[in-house]
Amino acid sequence: MKNAKMPTSDSYQDYLIEALKDKIHAAAYLTAHLEDDEPEAGLLELGLSNVFEALGEPNMSDEEAKLHLEKLDGLLSHNGMATIYALANWLNSLGLKLSVAVAEGEGEEESSLAGAELVEVVKV
Question: Is 69 part of a structural domain of the chain?
Fold first, then answer.
């Protein structure tokens, strides 16, 4: 038994990054973060960082990757409408896009704003 080796396994993070290299999987992963009914602080930023590690880092120099992550930090610290546009541009550079879709179970006959939650948009 002295020569027995412990089996090794890949870490979850390694598995996740490999899976996120598929843009369809990356989009679904970010959608799940955005649709969370009870989002935890920092999880969206972590999700965006994971997608960046999978899709952006391999295609950028170290300096470009550093600048791209700094841009993410900056855009997440903004408030209001500018943040949405900045996030859309950031995702676009990774080959992804920000979009809006009809919620499951919502039909055209239920298209009124009666149940919609309105939020204030502040310009920065």
Answer: yes
